[in-house]
Structure formats: structure tokens, C-alpha cells
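Following up on my earlier thread - several people asked me to post the actual chain instead of describing it. Fair enough. Here it is, all 65 residues.
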Amino acid sequence: MYYSRLKALRIKKGMTLEELAELANVSAGYLCHLENGTRKNPTIEVMEKIAKALNTNIFEIFFNE
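Reply from S.P.:
Thanks for posting it. Predicted structure:
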């Protein structure tokens, strides 16, 4: 699922949860829930913000099985 890819990519980029949250303009708590799989179905806008902050595209994170 996307949550493991999201966390792995964030760590690979050397970012903390707080750094990614600030760059993506979403809360660190929300990102934590996404990474742990306790929050599902982020909006396309949130996916785009996260992907942009990680310098990738939404398909690489959220739709790549």
C-alpha cells in the first residue's frame, strides 16, 4: 500500500515528518496517520502537495502497486 512507500520515500529523501508536513502544507499528525495506514483516501490535492514536496508524482507514491 501507499503508506509504506510514502514513509520509505520520505526517509530516503532525508526528511523528518515535520519537514515534509511543512513543505506539503499539511499537518504532521495527518502525515503520520497516512504513513501508518490509519488514515486512508487522501484528497487529490493532498496527494499532489505531498508528491511535490517529495519531488515526485502522485502515481509513484499512491498508485504504484
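Residues 10 and 44 are 19 Å apart (CA to CA). That should answer part of your original question.
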